Each structure stands twice: as C-alpha cells, then as structure tokens.
Amino acid sequence: MGNNKYKILIVEDDHNIASFIQAILEANGYQVLTAERCRQGLLVFSSHMPDLVVLDLGLPDMDGEEFIRQARLSSTVPILVLSARTDESDKVSALDLGANDYITKPFGTAELLARVRAALRVNRHNVHAAAPSSQFAVDDLLIDYDRRQVSVAGSRVHLTQTEYNILAFLSQHTGKVMTYSAIIRAIWGSMDDGSIKKLQVNMANIRKKLGCRPGDNRYVTNELGVGYRMLDE
Fold this sequence. Notes:
Layout: E1 7-11, H1 15-27, E2 31-35, H2 38-48, E3 52-55, H3 64-71, E4 79-83, H4 88-97, E5 101-104, H5 109-128, E6 135-138, E7 141-144, E8 149-152, E9 155-157, H6 161-171, E10 177-179, H7 180-188, H8 195-209, E11 220-223, E12 227-230
Parallel strand pairs: 1-2, 1-3, 3-4, 4-5
Antiparallel strand pairs: 6-7, 7-8, 8-9, 10-12, 11-12
C-alpha cells in the first residue's frame, strides 16, 4: 500500500545526504519537501504542515534545536533528528526540547524507514484519538488506567505504585524516546544525585515482573545513556 498521503519535510544542508534521504522516501511512496536552512525549513513547515520532519542539527544559519523549539510552540508533528552529533548530551537536549527520535549518521536505509514508520504511527494515534483511552495494549501487555492494573497474557502483574506510574507514563508516550530526566520529573518531580540509578532499579523490577529476561526488549527498550521507549507494536 502506498504512503503518498504522508508528507515529510527534510531539513538538511548537505545536498548529497538530502537527495539520498529524498530518494529513499519517495521510493517508498512518501511525498517529500526539502529545505537547506533552519529559517527556510520553518517557513516550509508552517506553510505546508508536513506529517513528519527529518531534521539535521548542524544547519548553517541556526542550530537545528531552534527549529525544534519554534515548531513545538504550535505543533506536535513528529520530529526525527538525523545528526552526526553522537554525544549523549546532544541527544538528550534534542529529545527534551521535543524531538521524537534521534538517529546518528551514518545510518541504514532500513533503520531510517523503520523510525519514520514508527513516528508516523505515533502521530496518527495522536491525531485520531478523540478521547484518551482507558486502556493501553501492546503484544500481550495490557494496562488498565482506570483500575491502575497491569496484566500480561491475562495474568495480573503486581507492581508498586512507582513502578505502575513509570510504566503508565511510558505507555502514554508510546513510540517516543522519553529521556531519563523527563521520566524522573514526571514521577518524582525533581532530580537528585541518585535519580537515574533509582529509575534504573525500578525499570529492572518492572521488566522482571513483566516476565522479561535480561536483554528482552519486548515492551520497553532502553536507549542507552538517553532514556526509555515504550514500543507500539
């Protein structure tokens, strides 16, 4: 099935990379818009309202983070950062500003397309959800928000209140990388010296109670050094 109803904006100043991404996306049925500067990208963004933005951070006129800041003032359209910056601090900063995902260059075609599909699924869910669902389900995991209950394959999973709050928070942002700091602020309200360790211990307990063995990312994947992502399929 074609994806030509989806319009993707590429903001990238390297012509070869932009052309390569454009060719990949168009070959897979997406409509593509391009911009080589941050200001130009913001103009195209506001006038064409794309379904997804693929954004480089190292733009010649302004840093790509400024694009994220301005776009998030009025829109929740998914932003997929594609950057040569590999420092964890750069990834965390972009995600905290509102980017949905972060891929470092060089990247594979299959990975890029998978991340694009995931971001579009999240956007489609957000657009078409007329009211918040009282339940969340992925694979055989079910979260009942009204009852604050979790089950796997029909069997009740007994979580602490903190463990439930973490899992529920991730499920409400399914498909998006939530940084450690964003999760900690949502659950505990502030950061302290042991916050990340405390979060990691709770996540280890959650995984164990959900029946996940070490390395099993069936429900939640760990973006090392950055945060966690609840899978949506």
